[in-house]
Design brief:
alpha+beta
């Protein structure tokens, strides 16, 4: 961590602060700079709190000199950028790091109980202590945020100087100092007392500050502050209601991550030198025009043969969504998944490609007919895969499943042609469900009824969090989606028990639509768990048959039964049915849908209706 000090500091010729002059505060892993401590998030380092800076050139979160470029054309095209960059990594040669700003600014001293801005305590340079008491200052536990992504300080002045008839009109009119202390009687908000030495306002507790309309009742709305962008980014007129949050709450920052697998013809890296030219190349329809453009850009020495360039352009146009002049983001993302599904089905034999190939997918050698009785078909062994996960934006107080653009906060004030991303490599097993058997099963009235309950609950959650019904995306809940999702979870749990993989090192990738019914379980992780062929070995038909049967039998019972089995609703907003942490839920990093839309009864059936389960015949005695 390299937070800018509050006092005067030396600058370079262009006004920028040299990276080697900034103090360091702790460290985070490279992957956490995308998933946990990304742009705009809050990070606690020892007893201090900071917000990660944005990507604007004037005060960029990290130096580009230590941020290698990575390429994934399909994902870059989806997100309208040219390429991606890795966050800086900590090593002996690193001169820079992740730059942060102190936030919240409001602190209090446990000794003198004063509550004021950090700089008003006159702390010594490079330290966060009270200049009078010489004890560590404590950052404010409370912040405010709105659904548009803005973040601000809790309005302590207004909270103390409120009254039933005048709201917060007296705030800031006195010359007193704020005090904060805890009565110590309980751990609740009632025991946190805030007062003002002016004597014009009573001592008040923080109880009630988390009510949805607590700040609205004081006449306070969002002022559009964006502390991660610094003083160079003016506050935006917002006016949305503010919500009080704990500084460490997960609702303060939620990443919007998008990912793609590297598949042929883009997976051998040969197209990377043309990363910044594809949009321009797509403007030309003829081979002659493409050749002229390449000669002009590369001075007659194009690093990619013209035949390959034309083949890549054809492949990209094949991925365009059909029937839409201006396809939405959701349609383009679905087209990306469709192409991955086709490639996983068809495979990519290692013997036909060079060592640079990053996607190797082959059929198993064993007899696949042993899986017919399970309704499982088409297993594929993904011996090599590469996944790029990019941080597109972030949200606050919003459902991570929502793709509403108005709720996403950009990583910078000015447009960028790149985004932060992680590149991970691994292996996996891909399998599909038999379309005929699946089609018959999902038309059953009992199945449709259970799915409708989940879909209605999820749609209600989306509407509540977005606010405007016209901008709500439809819930993805469908019989095959929930079935595939739950099946992926029980397989991950089974492999974590039988094959020795930590559940957090495995991840699901669902392909559920009218023309898709597959799931990929893979070890795309940057640590040492996976990548040596252990998971691929689990995809051989005989072993996969045993794994699926064992997983289904294990899902038949839960240690929380009969409560789990008979639950009318569970999970966030009732978006799950028979699913809990004792049976099918996974670490959040393993699940694409944040552990919602799960129901193990769709696998095994209920005691009253055993035929409800897709794998009911496996459990038949």
């Amino acid at each position: 961590m390299t937070p800018p000090p509050a006092r005067r500091r030396r600058t370079g010729a262009n006004g920028a602060v040299p990276a080697h002059n900034l103090p360091r505060r702790g460290s985070v892993r490279r992957a956490q700079a995308i998933t946990t401590y990304g742009i705009g998030s809050l990070i606690a380092v020892d007893h201090e709190s900071f917000v990660v800076s944005g990507l604007d050139e004037a005060d960029r979160s990290w130096s580009l000199d230590e941020s290698p470029r990575i390429h994934e054309r399909r994902l870059a095209r989806l997100l309208d950028v040219d390429y991606f960059r890795l966050p800086p990594a900590s090593d002996d040669t690193s001169k820079d790091g992740l730059r942060v700003r102190r936030f919240p600014v409001m602190h209090f001293c446990p000794e003198c109980t004063e509550l004021q801005r950090h700089r008003d305590f006159n702390p010594p340079a490079g330290r966060s202590v009270c200049g009078t008491c010489e004890v560590d200052l404590v950052p404010s536990r409370f912040v405010v945020a709105c659904e548009a992504g803005h973040l601000g300080e809790f309005p302590y002045w207004q909270w103390i100087h409120r009254s039933a008839d005048r709201g917060a009109t007296a705030a800031g009119q006195c010359e007193g100092k704020l005090k904060l202390r805890s009565s110590g009687r309980t751990a609740s908000l009632r025991s946190i007392l805030v007062s003002c030495t002016c004597g014009q306002a009573p001592k008040v507790s923080m109880e009630g500050s988390f009510r949805r309309n607590a700040l609205k009742d004081l006449g306070l709305t969002c002022r559009g502050t964006r502390p991660w962008l610094g003083t160079s980014a003016p506050a935006q007129e917002c006016g949305l209601p503010l919500r009080t949050l704990q500084r460490g709450s997960s609702a303060v920052w939620q990443p919007v991550l998008k990912s793609a697998l590297s598949i042929p013809p883009w997976s051998d890296g040969r197209a990377d030198p043309l990363a910044e030219h594809w949009d321009a190349l797509r403007e030309y329809d003829t081979r002659e025009h493409v050749e002229i453009y390449l000669k002009g850009v590369f001075k007659g020495k194009c690093p990619v043969p013209l035949d390959e360039v034309m083949a890549l352009l054809d492949a990209e146009r094949e991925e365009d969504p059909n029937g839409e002049a201006a396809p939405t983001f959701d349609h383009r993302y679905r087209a990306l998944r469709n192409k991955e599904y086709e490639r996983l089905r068809s495979g990519n034999d290692e013997r036909e490609h060079s060592r640079d190939e990053q996607f190797v997918c082959e059929s198993p050698l064993g007899d696949q007919s042993v899986l017919d009785s399970l309704g499982v078909t088409g297993p594929m062994l993904v011996k090599k895969l590469r996944e790029v996960r990019a941080l597109k934006a972030f949200t606050r107080l919003a459902d991570p499943e929502s793709t509403s653009e108005s709720k996403e906060m950009s990583l910078s004030e000015s447009p960028l042609r790149w985004l932060p991303a992680m590149e991970v490599r691994g292996e996996g097993v891909f399998l599909r469900l038999d379309e005929d058997r699946l089609g018959t099963w999902e038309k059953a009235p009992a199945v449709a009824a259970r799915i409708e309950r989940m879909r209605t609950a999820h749609q209600r959650v989306l509407e509540q969090r977005v606010g405007d019904p016209s901008r709500v995306v439809p819930s993805p809940a469908s019989p095959r989606m929930v079935l595939l999702h739950t099946l992926a979870h029980v397989l991950i749990n089974e492999w974590s028990l039988e094959a020795g993989y930590p559940a957090a090192s495995l991840r699901e990738r669902l392909y559920a639509a009218d023309d898709m019914a597959g799931v990929l379980v893979y070890t795309a992780t940057s640590d040492s768990a996976g990548g040596l062929g252990g998971l691929v070995a689990q995809g051989e038909p005989a072993l996969l048959d045993r794994t699926v049967r064992s997983a289904v039998h294990r899902a038949e019972w839960c240690s929380s039964d009969p409560l789990c089995m008979e639950a009318e609703a569970s999970g966030t907003g009732g978006t799950n049915l028979a699913a809990c942490h004792a049976c099918v839920m996974l670490p959040e990093t393993s699940c694409e849908h944040n552990n919602i839309l799960l129901d193990r009864m769709l696998l095994v059936g209920t005691p009253d209706n055993p035929h409800l389960g897709y794998f009911a015949n496996v459990l038949a005695r």
